[in-house]
């Protein structure tokens, strides 16, 4: 009787392996919660030994933090890539907002990680990773709003305030899209959201 052929081991770089573990860990934390999720479950889902997971991430807290950071870096890169394409700063804003919403639509587990980070690790003296990333990118976004004001007829509103309202709308749209409220996907609603953000609801 012929023995079944053993699956061939595929060599992966350390970076590929690390990203695979972080992708799996994101799903495990989102599904089970930080307290219940464990390193063995992540190792099993990633198809590696538990020792391999510990070699990359010495503690569960480190794994959780790096999974969150990995997602935020990917989100940031998606937005930056989308904003690189158009020359008009108004189109840069449109595509940046679209990329932000679509990322959360494709990666809904990231919202769960935000909630868990706030519940498990936040102190009064420490900002969450999400807000750290948001604060780090503020100057860049304000500069884009100022370029829009230079090229387009806009109301006399401070660029900082304009940006904050934009952030409020986007964050609210993402959070509410993950509630039981009946809503169409963000990808289908984006053009309307952007139109109302730019023009309001009154006829001019």
UniProtKB/TrEMBL annotation:
<dbReference type="GO" id="GO:0003700">
    <property type="term" value="F:DNA-binding transcription factor activity"/>
</dbReference>
<keyword id="KW-0805">Transcription regulation</keyword>
<dbReference type="GO" id="GO:0000976">
    <property type="term" value="F:transcription cis-regulatory region binding"/>
</dbReference>
<dbReference type="InterPro" id="IPR036271">
    <property type="entry name" value="Tet_transcr_reg_TetR-rel_C_sf"/>
</dbReference>
<keyword id="KW-0238">DNA-binding</keyword>
<feature type="domain" description="HTH tetR-type">
    <location>
        <begin position="15"/>
        <end position="75"/>
    </location>
</feature>
<dbReference type="InterPro" id="IPR001647">
    <property type="entry name" value="HTH_TetR"/>
</dbReference>
<dbReference type="InterPro" id="IPR009057">
    <property type="entry name" value="Homeodomain-like_sf"/>
</dbReference>
<dbReference type="InterPro" id="IPR050109">
    <property type="entry name" value="HTH-type_TetR-like_transc_reg"/>
</dbReference>
<keyword id="KW-0804">Transcription</keyword>
<protein>
    <submittedName>
        <fullName>TetR family transcriptional regulator</fullName>
    </submittedName>
</protein>
<feature type="DNA-binding region" description="H-T-H motif">
    <location>
        <begin position="38"/>
        <end position="57"/>
    </location>
</feature>
<dbReference type="Pfam" id="PF00440">
    <property type="entry name" value="TetR_N"/>
</dbReference>
């Amino acid at each position: 009787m012929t023995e079944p052929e053993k699956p061939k081991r595929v060599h992966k770089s350390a970076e590929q392996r690390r990203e695979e573990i972080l992708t799996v860990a994101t799903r495990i934390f989102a599904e089970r919660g930080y307290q219940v999720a464990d390193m063995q479950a992540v190792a099993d889902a990633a198809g590696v030994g538990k020792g391999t997971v510990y070699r990359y991430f010495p503690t569960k807290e480190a794994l959780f933090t790096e999974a969150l950071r990995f997602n935020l870096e990917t989100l940031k890169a998606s937005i930056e890539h989308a904003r690189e394409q158009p020359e008009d700063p108004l189109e840069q804003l449109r595509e940046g907002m679209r990329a932000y919403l679509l990322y959360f639509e494709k990666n809904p587990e990231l919202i769960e990680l935000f909630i868990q980070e706030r519940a498990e690790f936040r102190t009064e003296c420490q900002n969450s990773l999400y807000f750290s990333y948001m604060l780090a990118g503020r100057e860049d976004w304000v500069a884009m709003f100022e370029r829009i004001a230079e090229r387009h007829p806009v109301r006399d509103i401070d660029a900082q305030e304009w940006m904050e309202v934009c952030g409020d709308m986007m964050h609210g749209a993402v959070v509410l899209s993950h509630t039981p409220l009946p809503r169409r996907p963000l990808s289908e609603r984006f053009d309307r959201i952007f139109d109302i953000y730019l023009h309001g609801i009154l006829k001019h």
